[in-house]
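debug: dumping io for the single-chain case to check the tokenizer round-trip. Nothing else runs in this session.
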Amino acid sequence: MRIIITETQSLLLTNLLNEAWTISKVKQVLRTNEKPSAKDPSKGLYRKMIEDVLLRHSDSLKKIGVENRSGHYFFIGRNEHSPLAYINTHYVVAMILANYFNVPDNATREEAVKIIGDGLDREFEDIFVNGNEISNEIYRVLNKSKSAGDENELVAKDYIIKKHSDVFDSVEVVAEVGGSLDKSGVDIVATTKNGKKINYQVKPFKYYAISSDGNAVIFGVNGRTPVYPHHHYWIFINGDKVLEVKARNLKPGVRQRDVMFLPKEDIVSKSDNLKPWVPKDKLI
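debug: decoded output
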């Protein structure tokens, strides 16, 4: 549900988002992308809390036309994700909720998760069904993530079809399916003419460079996912620019969180308008 906020409410929201809980604080304490672990109960607390809250309020979600399908949230009667499908891992939403429910700046992870969870249970209908001063901002950031994800997958699909039409019989985006492939980091499945399934992971990125040790360095990867054995290729998207790489040697970077490395020969293909970044002192 979308609501129109007044100038006074907008000012309140601006002040709210400037309080103690910043994005860096959320990433440090709440770790929204961290998955729950049966072996380590301290992991994935925020994500599990959000998922439990959404399950408890399934009847309320039906009022706004949203249903749970295998742990993913879709608009009823449509094969399209609701923005709420992204709420359990969105660090900006976590920041908004931490400030809205007055989580103390010195709260532990467990304390912060409990305060937010109790607050969501208490005000779920006001926020997600009826709409209040915080709803517009939450849905704004959720819609932005949903749209960006969908757009990147469509760009990748179009690129695969044009680049490899001689290899594949079909190319299908599976990110909206909510099945085991989607949950394990597969966004696109392409089927070769002899029936083999090829799994693609799609991620936005900023640019890539060739390092002095001969590797391709991919910078600004948004929302890193582990590289699984069932990944065949990763496709990195920046607007209409595409970089396609083999998953075999792809691994998280060691210099900063959002960098990934691979031998440059693992670059399968790239858009004609995508050139590697070169430091100014290396330009000829």
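debug: round-trip ok. The chain has two domains: 7-133, 152-282.
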